[in-house]
Every structure is written in structure tokens, then in C-alpha cells.
Design a protein that fits this description.
Elements: H1 2-9, E1 15-16, E2 20-23, H2 30-39, H3 41-44, H4 60-68, E3 76-82, E4 88-98, E5 104-111, H5 120-135, E6 140-145, H6 150-159, E7 162-173, E8 176-186, H7 187-201
Parallel strand pairs: 5-6
Antiparallel strand pairs: 1-2, 2-3, 3-4, 4-5, 6-8, 7-8
Helix pairs in contact: 5-6, 5-7
The protein binds coenzyme A.
């Protein structure tokens, strides 16, 4: 147990906020990640993307896919960790990165049920935006949300994303092609969000 605590204290955070940080997943995170996901399966399953023919999102194979694609050209995928004890409370992806004239990506995120209602995801999404705009140099980041996912829509509204419209049968969620609302930000809009929220959330 002492060894596990020691390892956790050394986990490197790529983005650091007030209460949470973002870290790339490592092989050592496999068991904790799968436990956190399974404990929240009822809360998560109906909102999670499922690649047709791909692994079940709660399977060990899903973690292996997350890890093997976490630092790619096409995505940066992070675990959300409490700064206090470095425990894993969720994840956020900057995925579908397209360069060239687009310089765009989309965000995907989830939080363990026990850690909802505390503002952790709003902070983690801000950190993912900072990573996308300032580290990866992207111009546009979007979040695509099922219209009935009120908790997720509240997160993007709280930050200041702009509503762009509804895309029909946009993503495969829990085995069904579902309509999604597009919420987006460009670099120009990020500058004012950073001024408004950055001082509070990015202490360093
Ligand atoms: C979407 C999801 C991440 C949102 O989680 P959340 O806990 O509601 O979001 P936050 O962590 O930002 O917390 C916001 C809540 O904490 C409250 N809060 C408490 N302390 C806070 C603080 N210090 N700062 C900000 N908010 C705080 C807010 O008032 C808000 O509660 P409210 O909605 O009742 O007003 C979560 O519901 C989830 O994992 N859902 C399943 C997966 C999913 O849908 N993913 C997104 C797919 S598009």
C-alpha cells in the first residue's frame, strides 16, 4: 500500500488546475481505471461512444486501446486525477485531431458517479481546452452532446461554448446512432474565456 501511495505521488500531471490535473494513462493505471469505470457503469453506459465492432467500453481491451492511442497525432487522451492524492476520477480526450487548414479536434469526457456535482469536470474541460489551444496549437475544439444529456450541456454552457446546431445520427452511443448538439470554441473565443476563468483555475 505504501508503495502504491508513493507511485501515485510521483504521477506526472500534464495540465494542472486548482483541484484536478490531467495525466496520460500508463500501464500501472489499468486496474484502477477499470475499477473506477465499472463502479460507475450504470451512470456512464448510456452516454459512452461505442465503435461498431470495437471493444466493450468497460473491458480491459478498451483501456488498452485508450493507452495505445493516448499520445498520438490524432488524439491526446488523459486521465483526470485529483491533485490531492492523484486518484483517478474520470477522463477527458482531445480526439479526432485534424491538422491542415482545419486545426480542429473534439472533446470527450466522463466522470465517476461519486465525483459528479463538484465542478471537477468543468475544471478538467478547461484544462483540456488549454492543452488543445495552447499546447497542441489547435484553432477549434468542439463537444458533441446528446440533447438529453443535461449535465454535459451544463458543463459546456458554464464554460462559454457556442451552440452550433444539431447533427443527425452523428455518433454511435451505447450501440445506437444518436443525434448530437455541436458546441464549439475557436482560439479567438478562448482568449476571452481564459481571461474570465484562467486566473481562478490556472494558478501557475
Ligand atoms: C457530463 C458529466 C461529466 C458532468 O458532470 P458534473 O459533475 O455535472 O459536472 P462538473 O464536474 O462540472 O460539476 C458541475 C456541478 O457541480 C457543482 N459545483 C459544486 N462545486 C463547484 C465548484 N467549485 N465549481 C464549479 N461547480 C461546482 C455545480 O453547481 C454543478 O452542479 P449543478 O449542475 O447541480 O448546478 C457527468 O455527468 C458524466 O460523467 N456523465 C456521463 C458521461 C457523459 O455524459 N459524458 C459526456 C458525453 S457528451
Amino acid at each position: 500500500m505504501a508503495k502504491a501511495g508513493e507511485r501515485l505521488r510521483r504521477v506526472e500531471l500534464v495540465q494542472v488546475g486548482l483541484r484536478v490535473g490531467l495525466a496520460f494513462p500508463t500501464a500501472a493505471d489499468r486496474a484502477s481505471y477499470l475499477r473506477v469505470r465499472r463502479e460507475s457503469e450504470r451512470h456512464l453506459r448510456r452516454w459512452l461512444g461505442t465503435a461498431p465492432g470495437g471493444p466493450d467500453p468497460f473491458s480491459p481491451a478498451a483501456f488498452d486501446r485508450l493507452r495505445s492511442t493516448a499520445r498520438g497525432e490524432g488524439a491526446n487522451r488523459f486521465l483526470i486525477r485529483l491533485i490531492e492524492d492523484r486518484s483517478i476520477i474520470g477522463a477527458v480526450d482531445v480526439g479526432g485531431i485534424v491538422r491542415g487548414a482545419f486545426q480542429s479536434a473534439y472533446l470527450g469526457y466522463w466522470l465517476a458517479a461519486a465525483h459528479t456535482g463538484k465542478g471537477y469536470m468543468s475544471e478538467a474541460v478547461l484544462l483540456a481546452l488549454r492543452h488543445g489551444f495552447e499546447t497542441l496549437g489547435l484553432h477549434r475544439l468542439e463537444a458533441n452532446i446528446i440533447p438529453t444529456n443535461k449535465a454535459s450541456i451544463a458543463v459546456v454552457k458554464r464554460i462559454g461554448f457556442r451552440f452550433e446546431g444539431l447533427a443527425k445520427r452523428y455518433l454511435c452511443i451505447n450501440g445506437r446512432w444518436r443525434d448530437h448538439e455541436h458546441w464549439a470554441l475557436t482560439l479567438e473565443e478562448w482568449a476571452s474565456i481564459r481571461r474570465r476563468l484562467g486566473r481562478r483555475y490556472f494558478p501557475q
